[in-house]
Amino acid sequence: MFVKNIINNNIATIIISNENKKNSLTRDFFIELAKELTKIENNDNIKILIIKGEGSNFSSGVNLNELINFPSTIDAKEFAVLMETTMNKLFNFKKPTISVVDGFALGAGAGLILNTDISIFTENVKLGFPAVRIGAILPSACTKRLVSTVGMKVAKDLLLTGKIINSEESLRLNIANYVVKNEELTGILTKITKQLLKASPIALELTKETINSYTNTQNNLYSGDNFAYLYSTADWHQRIWNFLNKDNKKS
What we know:
Helix content is about 50%, strand content about 15%. By secondary structure, it is α/β, with parallel strands linked by helices. The protein has a single domain, classed as 2-enoyl-CoA Hydratase, Chain A, domain 1. The protein has a 6-stranded mixed sheet, with helices on both faces. Strands 5-7-8 form a 3-stranded mixed sheet.
């Protein structure tokens, strides 16, 4: 199981559960997440969704072993489409969504944050989009949200360099709504959820829909083809192998 769902007082909390791998994201994770989102959205008793990582990290992004072991380019494209549809499902989720972020938030892990409504960061967050370093690309759903959040020039800087930024820089760029100390996390989360629970659920849904419409134009479906094409190149495999080998040497 890569997704845990805890329901308490009209609030569902989805926990990314792959702690030994810094909560890296797999094909099974995206399948499980999509199913949980449907269940929660159809449950009228649940008013708010919180997403967080298990342990001290939010998510280190897509598991590299998956990226190097697709049976074919068709499978690579199917994985890319799965990521896209799940990210869009989260973005278009009818109820308010909050990401609670600690530690690493990289690649598609950071993409999940961009597709939630409100983001609360601890002071320890390291966020970035290092896909280009391993010869890959960020899902287009995440890329669109990043551009709409930080602007085109800043998005290009983050995506083309793959640099890692801290919590304060994430706040400055509007990726984080709040940055708090660990001991303040429960307090700010309680305050925000109380405010949301006081609001009309229908009004919240329509407000989200209105705001989302500004960036919710049709995704570029070539993203899956680009992902599959990169998988077919020797550069992709060599870069990921080098990264995995470097990781093994450190351990």
